[in-house]
Amino acid sequence: MKSATINKTLFVGKLNPIVTSGEIAKLFGLYGTVDSVTIGNEKCDEGFNYCFVRMSSVGEASQCVEVLNNTLFKGEQISIRF
Length: 82
What we know:
Blueprint: H1 2-8, E1 9-15, H2 21-29, E2 34-39, E3 49-55, H3 58-68, E4 72-73, E5 76-77, E6 79-81
Helix pairs in contact: 1-3
């Protein structure tokens, strides 16, 4: 069961530092049910923030990667991967 949890959890990088967990949940919620959003407390990639988004299913997580990876969100091109 642990691998299913990992496959439902996405790493989202290059987030604008002003983005909130609620805004992330709203964006990813367009493609399924968001179980949790955890914003990292350290900046990476030249001052950008990152977070982990856990979706309710692997299919929803996959759809988020397909649709949202390398798209603009709050002025920054976000990077999404498993």
